[in-house]
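User: I'll paste a sequence; please echo it back and then give the predicted structure.

Assistant: Echoing your sequence first, then the prediction.
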Amino acid sequence: MAECPRGVGRVWATRLGTYLFSRISSDEGTDSRFDNIRGSPPKFLGAFFAQATWVTLCLMPVLAVNALPASLFSTLPAAIGITDILGALLFVGGFSFEVAADRQKNKWVQDKNTKKHNEEFLTRGLWSKSRHPNYFGEVTLWSGIATLAGGVLVSNVGQMGMGLAGGPLGVAAALAMAGVSPAFVSLLLFKVSGIPLSEGKYDKRYGDRKDYQEWKKNTPMFFPKF
């Protein structure tokens, strides 16, 4: 089942690329996140390498599977394993959750721009179940990719392909290689650029409003409450 991590990686990349292109195209062809650094080559270079590092660490489980010798793939068991099922469920669930959350927010922004509502922040749909449903979906889908890849890497074929001797250390190395992806995404979203920036921005703007305080009090930050 080595094709599974590759396949879902392509799905993620295609979806992210089309989403960002569509968002930038609708915003006069620019990305406001780069407005303050576009005129500074060193800062722009730093942003480029930061994004390259992000993509590399996110795709580490897929890259690890791709690095295995092609001749070994034919020796993998044809039967679907528990990691294949669990990984696919996590990926499909997380991917669907993130896409739905992004579409709801885009629709909300479009309606606001056309004066169909005057709400200052989104509290409907999945955004009433979690304050960051898109981030929940992102972490979940990468957990699914890590699970799919981990099933291959911890197998005898995966251990042989990576030049590991198997045993506890070999399995631990394979799991670490697969797990770095969701771990890095979680670190980024929880401690660096995702949730802290978003929460800080909205707290500064609406922190004194009772409706915002009520929504924040009753809506989980990350894990959805249904």
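The chain has a mean pLDDT of 87. The two ends are 33 Å apart (CA to CA).
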